[in-house]
Amino acid sequence: MDKKTLHSFIQTTSAIIATIFGLITIWIGGMTLFGFFDPGYVIFVPLLTYNVIMGLFYTAIGILIWRQHPKATQASKFIFLLDIVVL
Q1: Of 40, 49, 62, 69, whose CB count within 10 A is highest?
Q2: Is 35 left (phi over 0), alpha (psi -120 to 50) or beta?
Q3: pTM, whole model, 2 decimals?
C-alpha cells in the first residue's frame, strides 16, 4: 500500500467513524434527553445537552473530513479542546 492510498484510507475511515459517532450520540442522547430512553441512573442534564450538541458537530466534522475540506483539521482540534475543557 503506497503512501497516497494509506492516507486516503485513513481519511475515509476517520470520516466514517466521526459521522457514525456523531449520529449515535445524537440518537441516544436525544432519546435520553427527551425521555424516550431511561439508562437507569441519574443523568446530569447539562452534560447530556452538551453531548447532543457536540454530536451535531461530530457529524458535521465527519462530512468535512469526507469532502477533504481545508478547515476539517482546525474544526477537529477545536472540538478536541472543547471536550478537554468540559472534561
Answers
A1: 62
A2: left
A3: 0.83
